[in-house]
């Protein structure tokens, strides 16, 4: 999958969810993944 394909699918999914581009961007997923990993390992550091 190319970057352009991933971007296109992400944009379509965001539109289908009714979320504005300014409210949620692809870079937000990285922070969310880090938070989820820290919470699942019970090690906040």
Question: How would you characterize this protein structure?
Answer:
With 45 residues, the chain is mainly alpha-helical. The protein has one domain. Helices cover 67% and strands 0% of the residues. The protein contains 2 helices and no strands.
Descriptive keywords:
single chain; 45 residues
Main sheet summary: none
**Radius of gyration based on Cα positions:** 13 Å
The SSE order reads HH
- SSE class: mainly alpha
Break the fold down into its secondary structure elements and pairings.
Elements: H1 3-17, H2 27-41
Concise account of the structure shown:
The protein has helices at residues 3-17, 27-41.
């Amino acid at each position: 999958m190319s970057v352009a394909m991933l971007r296109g699918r992400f944009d379509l999914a965001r539109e289908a969810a009714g979320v504005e581009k300014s409210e949620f961007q692809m870079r937000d997923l990285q922070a969310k993944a880090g938070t989820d990993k820290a919470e699942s390992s019970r090690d906040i550091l």
